[in-house]
Amino acid sequence: MSLEKQLFLSFFSVSACLLVLSLGISLFYNVNRRKAEIDSLISGVAAYAASMDQVIHMLDSGYPDRETAAALDGLHENFPDLNVIAIYDRNLLRFYHTTRRESGESLINGEEQAVLSGSGPYITTGIGTHGTQRRAFHAVVGNDGAISGFVMASAFSTYIAEQSRQIFSVYAAVLVVMLVVSFLLSHGTVRLLRSSLMGYHPQELLRLYLRQDTVLNAMEEGILASDLTGTVVFANQPARALFPPGEEPLGQPIGRLFPATRAQEILKTGSPVMGQGCSLSGHPLICSEIPIGNLPKIQGVLTILNDRYEVETLSDELSGARSMLDTLRAFNHEFLNKLHVILGYLQTGQTQQAITFITNSSLVSSQAIRQTADCLRVHQICALVVGKMMHAAELGILLTVSPDSRCMGKDLVMDVGDCVTLVGNLLENAIEELHGSKKEIREITLGIYASTEGTVITCADTGRGIPAPVLERIFDNGFSTKGEGRGTGLHLVRQIVDRCGGEISIDTEEGEGTCFTLTFTRKEYQ
C-alpha cells in the first residue's frame, strides 16, 4: 500500500472513530436523558393528579365523578408522552382509567402495596395488556390525613423504545453525512498535501528523503543547515562527529556551535563565503558557507566543513601530479634534444664524443626526475632544477636534490619568482665552478625546505672551495674570478635575501667544496 493511501486511510479512520465515539456518547446521553424526562413526566403527572382537590374529594366520597374524569382526561391530552392515568382507592377499586380500548388494561400485581403503606412516590416497570410500562405511583391523602388511595401514571416501554429509535435514526443519518464529509475532507487533505509537496507523492518524497539522507551521511564533508533564525535544522554524521560526544547540534544556534560562521552576513547579501580557514572543537577545518535559495527568498545557509589536513593532502597530491607532468614534458623535450645531439655526433663520425655524451646523460635517471618532482611541488622550481640537471649532466656533473627536501607554494616565504632566481643562480654558480675544476668527483646537492616556520635553501658542491680574499668580495656587483662581464648572479642573490629579511651563510674549505645556506624566517615566528 502506498504512503498516500495509508495517509488517506489514517485520516479517514481517525475521523470515523472520533465521529462514532462522539455520536455514540451523545446518543447514549440523549436516550438516557429522554428516559429520565419520561420518568420525570409520569412522576410529575402522578403527583399533580394526587394533589387535585377533585381527586381527593372523589376518593373520600367513595363514588366516581364525571367532572373529575373530564379534568383527568384533559390532563392526559396535554401530555402526549403519557399513556395511562389510573386512580384506585385503598381497596383497589378503580375510580378512573384512561380509555382501556386504546391503552389496554394495567395489571398492578401488588406494586401498590408500598404506596398504600405510606411510602413516598416511586417508579416501577410493570406489565399491562399492551406490554411493559414505566409506572409512577403517588399516594392520595384524604381530608382526614389518611391515605385514601393512589394515582398511577405510566408510559409504555414500546413508546420509549420508539422514541429511542427515532433518536438513533437521526444520529445514524448524521453519522452517514459526517462520514461522507470526513471522506471528502481526508481526500482533499491528501491532495492538498501533495500540492504542498510540489507534486510529489508522499511515497516518492519518502524515498527521495531516505536516499538523500543516505547520500549526505555517506559524504566525507560535514554539512550543517541553518534556517533564517540561525538555528541548525540539519547535520549529517560527519558534522556530528566534529562535536563533543553527547552534544546535539540540532536546534542549537549556529553562532554558538560555530563562532566563525558568517551566516547572518550571507542571509543579508546572498553571497557565498568559500574556503575560509577555521577551527571547530579543536579540529582545523576549511569552511564554505552557501545561501539556500536566492534573494529575496533565501531560506537558510548551508555550511560545508572539510578537514584541513585532508584538503591539504589532496592539494599536495594534485600539485605533485601537476609538477610531475610539467617535469616530464621538460624531460621529454630535453631527451629529444639529446637524441639530436647524439645523431649529429654519429653522422659526423665523432663516435667517442657520442659515447661520452651518452655516458654523461645517464647521470640523470627517471628515478631522479620522479624524486625531484615529488620533493619540489612548485612546478616552476621543479622544471628549473630538472633543466639544470640536464645541463649539468652534459658537463659530467651529477646534480641531485636532497631526498628530505620539501617545497610547496603555500609554504614559501618569498615569491616563487624570487625563489627561482635564488636557486637558478646558486646552481649555475656551482655548475660553472665544477666545470672549471679538474676534480674527479663532481657533484652538486640542492636542498629546499619550506614549512610554516620559514624556508631554507642549501646548495653544496664538491668544487675547489672559495679562497678567503674571494669570499670577502663574493657578493659584490661585477666581482668574478671567471672574467669580464660576470659577477652579477651572487650579487642578485644577496639583494633578494636582504629584501626578504633572510640570512646567508657560506661553509667552504679549499680543495673540499662549498655549501651556501639561505635562511628565511616568517615574521610571525621571529
Please provide a written account of the structure.
This protein has 526 residues and is of the alpha+beta class. The protein folds into three domains: 3-163, 2-Layer Sandwich (Beta-Lactamase), CATH 3.30.450; 222-308, PAS domain (Beta-Lactamase, 2-Layer Sandwich); 363-525, Heat Shock Protein 90 (2-Layer Sandwich). The chain has helices spanning 3-50, 53-61, 66-77, 100-103, 113-116, 157-196, 202-218, 237-240, 254-257, 263-269, 308-347, 351-361, 366-375, 379-394, 416-435, 468-473, 489-499, and strands at residues 84-89, 94-97, 106-107, 122-128, 131-141, 147-156, 222-226, 232-235, 273-280, 283-292, 300-307, 398-401, 443-450, 454-461, 503-509, 513-521. A hairpin with a 5-residue loop joins β5 and β6. α11 (308-347) packs antiparallel against α13 (366-375), α11 (308-347) runs parallel beside α14 (379-394) and α14 (379-394) packs parallel to α15 (416-435). The radius of gyration is 56 Å and the shape is rod-shaped. The relative contact order is 0.05.
Q: What characterizes the major β-sheet?
A: 6 strands, antiparallel
Spatial order of the strands forming the largest sheet:
2-1-6-5-4-3
CATH domain class name of the largest domain: Alpha Beta
* Spans of at least 5 consecutive residues with low confidence: none
Number of separate strands? 16
Helix content: 40-55%
Shape call: rod-shaped
Keywords: ATP-binding, Cell membrane, Kinase, Membrane, Nucleotide-binding, Phosphoprotein, Transferase, Transmembrane, Transmembrane helix, Two-component regulatory system
Protein name: histidine kinase
Catalytic activity: ATP + protein L-histidine = ADP + protein N-phospho-L-histidine
Domain Histidine kinase: 330-524
